[in-house]
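hiii, so i know i said id send this last week but things got crazy w the move. better late than never?? heres the sequnce for the chain we talked about at the cafe, plus the structure i predicted for it. fair warning i was half asleep when i ran it
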Amino acid sequence: MRQASKWTLIGLLIWALASWGLAPTARSQLSLSAVIQETARQLDLALQQSLLASSAPTLENVQALSHQLLNLLEGQSGPDYDPRYPIAGDQLGLIEYASQIETSLQDARYQHRFDVTVDNIMVDFKLALARTQQVLQLTALGDTREKLNETTAFLSAAKGRADDVPPLGGILFLAAQIAQP
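okay and structure toks below
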């Protein structure tokens, strides 16, 4: 019982810290660079949640943390969003953030330079979501580890590095490229 309350406390702490994020009404006025930065912040939360879930001591903890991860990926408008599992993020969802980035990059000045990068990020988010949904269907703790490791790998790929080679980069690559004049 003591372990369960520890994991609940950790999840609530992450949620409280991240709740200081941007309000939904402010998001519509963000620049492309700010949307990318907020996506990177939300992605860091999702990676933390995935790692917490993969090391949780019980199936119940894994499933609760995985529900929160699913909510981070889908956001409130997602078909599997479950309000019983408060999330650390701003409730927009990583998939929606990627859609906003994709729309913003349609601007002529970017001349489709980042289309493949954004497509890869979106695919990684959707694969992470699919693995998280699979975790929620599992009934044995040991079976969840592999799927959560795959989830973490897809989220890590979506994050990428600032010095990645196009079109292989992730969010950090986009942040570095968009910040350049």
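btw The radius of gyration is 16 Å. thought thatd interest u
miss u guys!!
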